[in-house]
Amino acid sequence: MLPRLLTPRWVLLHLLVAALFVATFFLGYWQLTKAENGGGAVNWSYALQWPLYGFMGLFFYAKMVKVELNRDPDEDEPGQDVVLYQRPRIDTTGDPELAAYNRYLAELNEKALRGRDGS
């Protein structure tokens, strides 16, 4: 399970998230210094928002790691059961107009398939 998170792609992502998390605190500190020097209410709000953004990003990254750890590693492999064509079902229950229309569509489908095969 853990080796999946140690591939080059994931290691780069770990480093990027860590750097961005730290950067949000530096940005928050920068906004705090501006606010203390008379920057106004906007700077005070940004001083609180930047660390919040960092924690939000960390939360969503943790969710992404959890999904990756719980994912079946074989789900990326192509399956053997490939359905190329499936004959349409004709609904004969209920509405007779619908059943007639479905039979008409089935006839058109058969003609199209015969024409494509060259028969």
Keywords:
mainly alpha, 3 helices, 119 residues, 0% strand, 71% helix, single chain
Protein topology:
Layout: H1 8-39, H2 41-70, H3 96-117
Helix pairs in contact: 1-2
Notes on the protein architecture:
Keywords: DNA-binding, Membrane, Transmembrane, Transmembrane helix. The chain crosses the membrane at residues 12-32, 44-62. With 119 residues, the chain is mainly α. The protein has a domain at 3-76. It is 71% helix and 0% strand. The chain contains 3 helices and no strands. The chain has helices at residues 8-39, 41-70, 96-117. Helix 1 (8-39) packs antiparallel against helix 2.
How does the major sheet shape up? none
Tell me the fraction of residues in β-strands, as a range: under 5%
Distance between the termini: 54 Å
Determine the fraction of residues in helical runs and give it as a percent range: over 70%
Along the chain, the helix and strand elements come as: HHH
Q: What is the radius of gyration?
A: 29 Å
What is the number of helical segments per DSSP (H or I, 4+ residues)? 3
Number of strands: 0
Protein name: DNA-binding transcriptional regulator of glucitol operon
GO molecular function, one term: DNA binding
Keywords: DNA-binding, Membrane, Transmembrane, Transmembrane helix
Transmembrane segments: 12-32, 44-62
